[in-house]
Amino acid sequence: MTDPSSSPIFELNSSGVQARAQLRGGQFVVLMFTAAVLGGLGSVAGAVVGGLMVGVVQSFSAMLLPLQLQNLVLFVVFIAILAWRPQGLLGAQA
To answer: Is residue 74 part of a domain?
Structure first.
C-alpha cells in the first residue's frame, strides 16, 4: 500500500494494532474556522457571509498574486476586520 489515499485508519504490524493519523483536510478546517470567526461566532448568517468573503478574497488574491500568497492575503484581511470589529461582521456586541 503505497497510495496514502487508500491507507486504513488502523493497521496491523509486528507490534500490534496501531492507529494512523488522518491528516487530510487540515487546510480546509483552518479556512472554515476563519470564515466562522470572520462572520461572527454564534451567527449562522455570519458564517455564510464569512465563507463568501473567504472565497472572494482568495479568488481575487489568486488572480493578482502568486498562488503561495493566497492565504497570506486572506489572513491580512481577517486580522484587519477583527481589529475593526472584534465580534466579527455579524456577531452580537459583547
So the answer is: yes
Contact 36, 89 (CB under 8 A): no
In a domain, 17, yes or no: no
Q: Is residue 9 part of a domain?
A: no
The greatest distance separating any two alpha carbons of the chain, rounded to the nearest whole angstrom, comes to: 57
- Tally of structural domains, the chain: 1
pLDDT score of 43 more than 70? yes
CB proximity list for 29: less than 8 A, separation 6 or greater: none
Whether the Cβ atoms of residue 70 and residue 61 lie closer than 8 Å to each other: yes
- What average pLDDT is seen over the chain? 79
User: Do the beta carbons of residue 49 and residue 89 sit within 8 Å?
Assistant: yes
- The average pLDDT across 5-14 equals 57
CB 20 within 8 A of CB 8: yes
Relative orientation angle of helices 70-84 and 26-39, to the nearest 10 degrees = 30
- Domain of residue 32: give its range: 25-94
